[in-house]
């Protein structure tokens, strides 16, 4: 049996903890270390948690680092630092900034002969793949992406970065009328802000102005500015009671016309009881692919479009053909 793929985790929040548990379901992989900005004494756990300063000491001891920080503040810095030493996988999800982020990571990873997969998870990630698949098969058509109903980790994290915010949860809700229209043969023009609503629940720190924080949320570029957003300020007790679960999901719909003008519709649906648990499972599967591709001397930054599907599976190519083809 080949030696197991050695994985490191950077960040030990909900996503990092999810990766830790997901690795236990993948016997071809093993967790070598977890790195956190918090002091190891903070965690009441038996996990091997080390400080971020220890990361360079694990060069050649870890095959792939899975980066579990937030897109707003963490990943733009951490990915560039860590790609100097390791191949990486991350879930950077600020869609409008992906091209610049890709170029920055590509430069560092290429210089150090590592392979960095950016922006994976379910969107960006799985939904991105489905969007490309739909357009490729039905080139004469339209694609609609709906998110929710559910809690967005990235948007919640972005709100928590605002000074004065103690706790925050952001929910994305699809507009049901727009969802029905997206499946129709007439292919209506729908823009993403009109297809969704956002609700944000915030617990303030003492002596901060709710009006200023509400304005900061609603005008946040790429996250809230184009959307209809409602902000609710609540007490910590209510937040802890009602906003600890992390469901999410969404769907991609491609409608189009094939030969002889036949109307066709493709749909891909996710209903997730726990968002970080699912996202972490996606990161782990792609970490396997990154390891295999780097073993074949692939370096630089890549996206999910560059990963052969079979490399996500622990099965051999022969077994995949026999079992699933």
Description:
It is a single chain. With 325 residues, the protein is an alpha/beta fold. Helices cover 33% and strands 26% of the residues. The protein has eleven helices and 14 strands. The strands form three sheets. Strands 3-2-1-4-5-6-14 form a seven-stranded parallel beta sheet, sandwiched between helices. The chain has a four-stranded mixed beta sheet with strand order 8-9-10-11. The longest helix is centred in the last third of the chain and has 21 residues, at 275-295. The protein is globular, with a radius of gyration of 21 Å.
Provide the domain count: 2
CATH topology category name of the largest domain: Rossmann fold
| Poorly predicted ranges | none
Number of strands: 14
**Class of secondary structure makeup:** alpha/beta
With strands numbered from the N-terminus, the spatial order across the biggest sheet is 3-2-1-4-5-6-14
CATH class of the largest domain: Alpha Beta
* Helix count, DSSP H or I runs of 4 or more residues: 11
Helix percent reads 25-40%
User: Biggest sheet: strands, sense, closure?
Assistant: 7 strands, parallel
What percentage of amino acids are in beta strands? 25-35%
Distance between the termini: 25 Å
Using the alpha-carbon principal axes, give the shape.
globular
Mean pLDDT: 94
């Amino acid at each position: 049996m080949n030696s197991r793929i050695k994985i490191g985790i950077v960040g030990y929040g909900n996503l990092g903890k999810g990766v830790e548990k997901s690795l236990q379901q993948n016997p071809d992989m093993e967790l070598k270390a977890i790195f956190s900005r918090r002091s190891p004494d903070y965690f009441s756990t038996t996990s091997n948690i080390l400080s971020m300063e220890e990361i360079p000491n694990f060069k050649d001891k870890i095959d792939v680092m899975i980066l579990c920080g937030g897109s707003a503040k963490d990943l733009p810095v951490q990915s560039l630092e860590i790609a100097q030493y390791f191949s990486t996988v991350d879930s950077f999800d600020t869609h409008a900034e992906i091209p610049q982020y890709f170029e920055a990571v590509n430069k560092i990873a290429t210089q150090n002969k590592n392979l960095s997969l950016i922006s994976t998870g379910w969107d960006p990630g799985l939904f991105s793949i489905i969007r490309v698949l739909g357009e490729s098969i039905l080139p004469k058509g339209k694609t609609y992406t709906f998110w929710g109903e559910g809690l967005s980790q990235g948007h919640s994290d972005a709100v928590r970065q605002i000074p004065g915010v103690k706790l925050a949860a952001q929910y994305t809700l699809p507009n049901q009328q727009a969802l029905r229209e997206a499946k129709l043969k007439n292919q209506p023009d729908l823009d993403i802000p009109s297809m969704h609503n956002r609700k944000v629940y915030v617990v303030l720190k003492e002596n901060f102005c709710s009006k200023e924080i509400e304005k900061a949320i609603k005008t946040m570029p790429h996250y809230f500015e184009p959307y209809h957003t409602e902000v609710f300020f609540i007490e910590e007790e209510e937040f802890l009671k009602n906003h600890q679960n992390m469901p999410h999901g969404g769907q991609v719909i491609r409608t189009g016309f094939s030969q002889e003008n036949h109307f066709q519709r493709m749909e891909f649906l996710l209903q997730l009881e726990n968002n970080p648990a699912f996202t972490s499972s996606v990161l782990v599967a792609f970490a396997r692919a990154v390891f295999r591709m780097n073993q074949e001397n692939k370096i630089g930054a890549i996206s999910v479009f560059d990963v052969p599907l079979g490399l996500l599976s622990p099965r051999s190519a022969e077994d995949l053909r026999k079992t699933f083809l």
